[in-house]
Design goal:
By secondary structure, this protein is α+β, with helices and mostly antiparallel strands. It is built from 5 helices and 6 strands, in the order E-H-E-H-E-H-E-E-H-H-E. The longest helix has 19 residues.
Amino acid sequence: MTATPLDRMHTPSIVVIPPSIRPFWNKFTASLGHDPSDHFYEAFHFDDNAQSADELAALVLAGKKRATAALVWAYESEGKPIPKPGDLSVVTLFSGEPVCVIETRDIKIVPFSEVDEDFAATEGEGDGTLVYWQRAHTAFFGRECQRLGREFSVRAPVVCERFAVVFRGTDRTEAQSGSGGAPAAGP
C-alpha cells in the first residue's frame, strides 16, 4: 500500500526532523557516527488504517516488504516532491511509533496497468502476486482518488519505490549508511 505522511517537513533547503521521531532519529545517527539529516524525507505509516499500517510495518521489519507504491496525484496534491534514491524515511506504526529507517533505492513512475509481477512481489503484500497487488491497490487508490477528487483508472501514474531497511530501532547493529554497507533487506 502507499505511504501516508505523518508530519513530514521537508523543503529543498530546510530539513526539520519531526519532534515525535527525533529520539529515534538520534539513535540512528549515533549508530552511523554522522548526521544524515540532509537526506531525511519523511516520517510515515503505510496505508490508511491501523491494522494494515501495522501489518505492513511488520512486513518491512521481516524483510518481506521492500517496496511501496503511491499515486503521483497524491504527491502533487500535497505539494510534495517524489522521493529520490538516497532519501531516508522513518517508517512508523499507525500510532506514530517509529520502527525503522528506510533508504529509497529506486524510483520508477509507470501507469497502474504497467506495474509488473516483480514489483508486486517486492512489495511483499498478500500472496505476492500481481493479481493480489492489483486488487489491493485498486481498492486503496480508489479511496485515495475519491479523497483527491480524481477518478481512478488503469492509466493512473504510480510511483514505484524500492527501498532497503538501514536501521531497526531494536537492533542498532543492522544500521548501515546508504551504499556503505549491505542493506538489512534486499533491494
